Amino acid sequence: MIKPRHEMNSAIEIDLNGPDGNAFVLMGFAKSYSKSLGWTTRKSDMLLKRMQSGDYDNLVDEFDKAFGHIVTLYR
Q: What angle do CA 56, 60, 61 make, to 5 degrees?
C-alpha cells in the first residue's frame, strides 16, 4: 500500500519522491530483498521483468505487490 509521506513509520520505508524512488534504485532494492527472502533467481528475474513491462506506476505497483508486507512506500 502506498501511503502519504506524513505517515512514515515502517521499519523499511521508501520515499518515492526522493532518490530511493528512482526506477533503477527500486529494481536494485527488489533484487536485494528477493535475495534476502530466499527467492529463486527465476522468481526474482520474473519480478524484475514485470516491473520493467510498463511505466513507472506499473514498476511501483509490482514492487509493492511483492514487498508491501515488509516495505512501506510514500509519495
A: 115
- Total domains, the chain: 1
Residue type, 57: D
**Contact (Cβ atoms closer than 8 angstroms) between residue 34 and residue 44:** yes
| Contact criterion met (CB below 8 Å) for 61 and 72 | no
Q: What is the pLDDT of residues 38-55, one digit of tens each?
A: 999 999 999 999 999 999
Is 26 in contact with 59 (CB distance < 8 Å)?
yes
Domain that holds residue 24: 11-74
Asked if residue 1 is part of any domain, the answer here is no
Model pTM?
0.86
Alpha-carbon distance of 46 to 52, in angstroms, equals 10
Q: SS3 for 2?
A: strand
Q: Does 32 fall in a domain?
A: yes
